[in-house]
Specification:
mainly alpha, 19 helices, about 350 residues
């Protein structure tokens, strides 16, 4: 009864928000359009965007502006859910919001590494989110001109430690900094989940993130074996240091396999290889997205009065924006609708 009372209000709110998300049929209709103003006009008529974009002039809206507005909608909807949540639900949302902070930190670092002479990252889609939900000084970070300055600006924040350790390495790459943030975030979730959650919520969080971490590790192992011929020590250093259904000894066997073909053979004997016999290394990235989506949908349906309903909605909202961003690019370059929909599904 406790969970029912705790989640009844937020579950009703999220069901209403979920019903407004753009579906595949609408994506197909968008792909039949011939210009960005037409896409903007179409989205302005949808329940998800009609109110927020009511004053938007579609005739003068360009691709970059539209993509920023879509990005901003993720943070806007997160804040709507946060305002409606109780203290227990906000514990999960506070934990989840770290991924948004990391996303923006990666954008700034990419700019520092690859586009040193360009304009700073445009944080207008995120500014309100950071004002409400983050202790990062986003304007100070954006103003940094090199990585040393950027990392020093993070002193006192939880992200300073993982990034400063990478800074001490010789010839650190952007990939190394990004991976350090990801591993920090994943480890944080896994280690604090039992302190923040109990009962059904703990079970839902463990299953959702446990399968996610297992599949991310599988993806990385397959890629490293297939494309990069990496040494086992280098692979171990980049794996998420926790496992769920994938046993430690199986990870060891996969990493130390002598060939890509041997890795495939070992994988077929694991929990995921047995349960999902149609998976192969060739389609594991596509399957990861499918499995995470269906797991979240299934858990949210099975127990609509749990943290799964929050995670499921946020996941679907982010992927709506990803799909729309790809669709906009396809319209811009005149890619045929059938080709575009396959590209969207694969990404």
């Amino acid at each position: 009864m406790g969970n029912l009372l705790s989640y009844s209000g937020i579950s009703t709110k999220i069901r209403a928000m979920q019903s407004k998300l753009i579906n595949e049929e609408q994506i197909r209709e968008i792909l039949e359009l011939s210009s960005i103003p037409q896409v903007t006009a179409y989205l302005k008529r949808t329940p998800e965007y009609s109110k927020v974009w009511a004053s938007l002039d579609e005739a003068s809206t360009h691709r970059g502006q539209l993509e920023k507005l879509l990005k901003a909608s993720i943070f806007h909807n997160f804040s709507k859910i946060y305002q409606f949540s109780n203290p227990e639900q906000r514990r999960f949302l506070d934990l989840y919001s770290r991924r948004y902070e990391i996303r923006v930190l990666k954008e700034i670092m990419t700019n520092l590494f690859d586009h040193r002479d360009t304009d700073p990252v445009d944080v207008s889609p995120y500014r309100e989110f950071f004002r409400r939900h983050s202790r990062l000084d986003i304007d100070r970070l954006v103003a940094c001109t090199n990585m040393e300055e950027f990392i020093n600006a993070l002193k006192g924040n939880e992200f300073y430690g993982p990034l400063s350790r990478i800074q001490n390495r010789e010839s650190a790459l952007l990939f190394d900094y990004g991976m350090a943030l990801d591993l920090y975030y994943f480890s944080l979730i896994w280690h604090v989940r039992k302190k923040l959650f109990s009962g059904n919520d703990l079970a839902e969080i463990t299953k959702a993130y446990g399968e996610k971490f297992d599949m991310l590790n599988l993806q990385f192992i397959f890629r490293s074996k297939r494309y990069f011929n990496m040494a086992p020590a280098d692979i171990y250093a980049l794996l998420i240091p926790m496992n769920y259904k994938l046993k430690k000894e199986e990870i060891t066997s996969l990493v130390e396999a002598a060939s890509y073909e041997e890795t495939q053979s070992i994988f077929r004997k694991t929990y995921y290889g047995r349960k999902y016999s149609h998976i192969s290394a060739q389609n594991i990235e596509e399957f990861y997205n499918y499995m995470l989506r269906t797991t979240l949908e299934k858990e949210a349906r099975k127990d609509p009065y749990s943290v799964a309903v929050l995670y499921s909605y946020l996941y679907h909202k982010e992927h709506e924006v990803n799909r729309l961003t790809i669709a906009i690019e396809c319209v811009r370059y005149g890619i045929p609708a059938e080709e575009a929909i396959q590209y969207i599904r694969n990404n």
